[in-house]
Sequence to fold (209 residues):
Amino acid sequence: MDARDKQRIIERYKVRLEAYGVDVRALASGNRERQQMRFKVLADVGNLEDQSILDIGCGFADFYTYLKDQGLHVQYTGIDICPQFINICQEQFPDLTFLVADIQTDTVPGTFDYIVSSQTFNNALAYNDNEKVLRDVLTRSYALCRKGVVIDMLTKYVDFKEPHLHYYSPEEIFSFCKSLTKRVALRHDYPLFEFAVYLYKDFQGWGKK
Fold:
């Protein structure tokens, strides 16, 4: 991501953090009920018990808290471009791994069973192409995962659009994901103006030895 866009996003969340503190409102992605609904969709990517998970754009590591509340034990790593979020996460969860990193351009050590990301790529970019950034992220995430990837984003099927947000075509995202793997699923059924795409590691065609 272009450094100018990155700085704009960091400043936006810094202002929201100062206004709301460690609260879901600082993340600009709706209320707690909507967040919990998204997390259920993310967790449906697979059986996450004892799995390693990379959370891209982890915010306050709320997805880890959700999994913990569900009684799941996971090996969790969170990354975010906002240093303020990472500092809060490190203080709150000192036994977990957190990094200030951009998945598109920075090195993320190791591989992970599952990679998740919620509401991370919805900010409209001024100096980058949102679609290219997301394609890069999907490609990189698929390369780093051992089992699967799930990312949610805003859908173009909305009643109105906010100028500071970017809305994606589910059909185009699905088509791109199919260029990475045969195993793709798309969910557009939950009651939010967004959708989630799941990518799983490929399989050999039936009948092949």
In short: The chain is about 35% helix and 20% strand. Strands lie at 52-56, 75-80, 97-100, 112-118, 145-154, 183-187, 194-200. The chain has a mean pLDDT of 95. The first strand starts at residue 52 and ends at 56.
